[in-house]
Each structure stands twice: as structure tokens, then as C-alpha cells.
């Protein structure tokens, strides 16, 4: 009988390796025995159709996928409610740093994984080992169960 680590399931993470939340989500995916497709979206930004599809799959308004800190959000005046979702998606395509992360796609759904443990809700395989975030906060116990926060 194959172990969870042998099961091949398609998982994609839109990842920024400089982001602790993104690194923690990636580590949780790997802790389920899955090696995901990693899209470093700052190096290889998703096209407009892909980004619009991700946002639609998450069921979120485009505004909820915008990142403010460390981006041109303020200089572009993106807090103006007059911007439509289509316009906000265009801004994210033009400035990928505006895209919040990580976004994870699995057979169980697409999610903006903030906090990183939100990825647990869409992973098709259970956690294989205890896991603590980079800051030391326990997320998964020795029996592979989610630790209550």
C-alpha cells in the first residue's frame, strides 16, 4: 500500500521565498508528502487570465488579494474604492509585487494562505510529522493533528 508521500497530487504554490508566511505554507505542503509546483511569481508572474482565474477560484474580490506593505499600493492610490476588480487585476499584472501570497491551488480548492496554516484546509494528504512555523509556533502535533491556536 503506498504511503501518503507516494501519492502524486497536483499542488501549485504561488510563492515568494523572501516571505515567511509563504515559506511556512510551502513547508506544510511538503510535510504532507507532496512536492508542489513552485511558481516564484515575482520571477514568473502569472498572466492576466491566470491571475483572474485564481482570484475567481478563491471567490474573493481582487482587492482582497492586494498587498500593501513594500509595494507601490499607496503611490498608485489603490485604496480608492473606484478601482474595479478588472483594474486592480491589471495593476497586479503590471506590478506582481502587489499580489499577496502565498496562493495555493490543490484538487480541494484555491486559497490565499494567510495565515500559512490555512493551507491545511485544502491539502489532500494529511500531515506526516510534527511541524512548527519559523517563529517556533506549533502547528502540527506528533500525531499529525492541527494544534489549536
CATH level 4 superfamily: Glutaredoxin
Q: Please tally the β strands and state the result.
A: 6
Radius of gyration: 16 Å
Corresponding CATH architecture: 3-Layer(aba) Sandwich
Q: Name the beta content range.
A: 5-15%
Q: Given the C-alpha coordinates, what overall shape results?
A: elongated
**CATH T-level topology:** Glutaredoxin
What's the main sheet like? 4 strands, mixed
Instruction: Give the quaternary arrangement of the chains.
Output: single chain
Q: Helix share of residues? A: 10-25%
Q: What order do the helices and strands follow?
A: EHEHHEEEE
Q: What is the terminal separation in angstroms?
A: 34 Å
Number of helices: 3
CATH class: Alpha Beta
Total domain modules: 1
Q: Numbering strands along the chain, what is their spatial order in the largest sheet?
A: 2-1-3-4
Q: Which structural class matches the secondary elements? A: alpha+beta
Provide mean pLDDT, rounded. Answer: 93
Residue runs with pLDDT of under 50 for 5 or more positions? 1-6
Briefly characterize the structure.
By secondary structure, the protein is an alpha+beta fold.
Q: Describe it for me?
A:
The protein has a single domain, classed as Glutaredoxin (3-Layer(aba) Sandwich). It contains 3 helices and 6 strands; from the N terminus they run βαβααββββ. 33% of the residues are buried. The protein is α+β, with helices and mostly antiparallel strands. Helices cover 22% and strands 14% of the residues. A hairpin with a 2-residue loop joins β3 and β4. The strands form 2 sheets. Strands 2-1-3-4 form a 4-stranded mixed β-sheet.
Amino acid at each position: 500500500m503506498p504511503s501518503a508521500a507516494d501519492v502524486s497530487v497536483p499542488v501549485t504554490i504561488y510563492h515568494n521565498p523572501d516571505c515567511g508566511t509563504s515559506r511556512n505554507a510551502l513547508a506544510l505542503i511538503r510535510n504532507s508528502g507532496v512536492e508542489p509546483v513552485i511558481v516564484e511569481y515575482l520571477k514568473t508572474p502569472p498572466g492576466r487570465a491566470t491571475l483572474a482565474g485564481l482570484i475567481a477560484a478563491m471567490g474573493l474580490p481582487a482587492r482582497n488579494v492586494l498587498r500593501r506593505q513594500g509595494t507601490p499600493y499607496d503611490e498608485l492610490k489603490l485604496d480608492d474604492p473606484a478601482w474595479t476588480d478588472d483594474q486592480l487585476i491589471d495593476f497586479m499584472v503590471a506590478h506582481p509585487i502587489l499580489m499577496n501570497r502565498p496562493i495555493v491551488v490543490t484538487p480541494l480548492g484555491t486559497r490565499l494562505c494567510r495565515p500559512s496554516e490555512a493551507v491545511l484546509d485544502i491539502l489532500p494528504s494529511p500531515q506526516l510529522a510534527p511541524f512548527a512555523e519559523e517563529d517556533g509556533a506549533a502547528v502540527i502535533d506528533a500525531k499529525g493533528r492541527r494544534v489549536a491556536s
